[in-house]
Amino acid sequence: MTKKLLTLLLVLASATAWAECSITAERTSTVVDAQKSTNWDGWNIKNYDAVCAKLAKANARLVIVGEAVVLSNRSIGWVMVGLKDRTSDISTFHFASSRTTVNDHASQDTANSLLVESMHMAVDNWPRLDEAIAALDKARATARKK
Predict the structure, then answer these.
(1) How far apart are CA 28 and CA 50, in angstroms?
(2) Which of 100, 99, 97 has the alpha carbon at shortest distance from 74?
(3) Average pLDDT of each block of 10 consecutive residues along the chain (146 residues)?
(4) Pair type for strands 91-103 and 25-27
(5) How crowded is residue 103: how many other Cβ atoms within 10 Å of its Cβ?
């Protein structure tokens, strides 16, 4: 009975820890507007747990800059994702992740959807996230010396 109770408590504790991990982000107004117009309901990325754990361990949040435009009869959504300290204004775009998505259907709604899609892809497929975290740590160390 004690083993079963202990196992259950460990499972609940790990589930609670997972549920508490959330990716936070500072976003430009364009990104916020695109998320609202597409009824964004959270991150849709395969590597959520890994990215979230790395950001939590590094005490970092995302900084998302993007644009959703219609140019030359095409919809374009692009983003660049960097890192920012959770408790200060220290940030870096060294080793940032970026993504651009284009569609031949020209509309602002499509461009907004492409921006959100690009944002998901940039975070999910961030090839140099570890290096970005190291760059944020270096920026923190430099700021402490001043």
Answers:
(1) 24
(2) 100
(3) 48 48 96 96 94 97 98 97 97 97 97 98 97 97 89
(4) unpaired
(5) 16
Cβ proximity of 79 and 65 under 8 Å: yes
Residues in the chain: 146
- 48-66 burial string, b = 16+ CB within 10 Å, else e? beebbebbbebebbbbbbb
Angle between helices 48-57 and 129-145 (to 10 degrees): 20
Q: Dihedral sign, CA of 47, 53, 43, 115?
A: negative
Helix then strand then coil, % of the chain, to nearest 5: 50, 25, 25
Could you tell me if 72 and 37 are in contact, meaning their C-beta atoms sit under 8 angstroms apart?
Answer: no
Give the predicted TM-score (pTM) of the model. Answer: 0.84
